[in-house]
Write a structure and sequence with these properties.
Blueprint lengths: L2 H10 L21 H8 L2 E7 L4 E3 L7 E7 L2 E6 L5 E7 L4 E2 L12 E4 L3 E7 H10 L1 H24 L4 H18 L6 E3 L4 H8 L3 H13 L3 E4 L2 E4 L2 H9 L4 H8 L19
Helix pairs in contact: 3-4, 5-8, 6-7
Amino acid sequence: MSKSDNDLSKRLFPVLTCRNCIVKKYCFPHDLSPEETAQFEQLVVRRRRVLRGEFAYRAHDECSKIFIVRLGSFKTVRVSRYGGMDVIAFHHTGDLLGIEGASHSAYEVDTIALEDSQICELSFVGLEELSRKIPRLHQQVWRRLSNEVTLMQQQSLLLKARSEQRFASFLLDLSRISSRCGNASTEFSLRMSRTDIGLFLGLTNESMSRLISKFRKARLIDVSVRKVRVLSPCTLEELASGAISWEQLEQEQMNLPRPRNVDLDKCIFNCG
């Protein structure tokens, strides 16, 4: 990092350290001793702001760093040689960026800020070396990498599900993220566009419009511009898990009987 970059980082984040960071409990140092945390902090190349629409990194850039989202949200996209675009994932506070390039010399996707955001840049080589010296850090690195693989597998399986199940799962993920960030689990803002959501879920704009209308008509959600309010979280869980189909839900709402095969007491929202 150049001296000018270093000076700018200090002006933007004058007293920020890993020890007082708001996302420490979601980051690598959360289980480290003060001495180990101080060593980890030496890996932070810089902290920087990424304005809405700007790139955290581009596909084919040299993969020398990984990034932690301190504030805000991002989308990772892959552009084909013919100009087509796929939205691979959305990332929020506490998430890692750049992991997909860990086994390559260059990043494989573009990562774009969905809102004005902040990231911490870590030396990838430095993280590898320090994790060999600190067993707890080594465990955390492997745990995070394992979680990333699991999320990719879940996303692959989700794309095989029906559109209603995909959308319900997506809304539940946003609900959990909102809760994790200390906000209400049933009210959150969509930072991504409807087109981005459709590309992520493998749906067209027309299909997304129909889905939103169906969910509103079924009184599962209320939408105002980009503000979403979840009205029936446990029903969303049933849809997402495949415990009920959309047809069964419609029957229930028409007061027709349908078998219940889910224990609502186990609903993560503790719905009554």
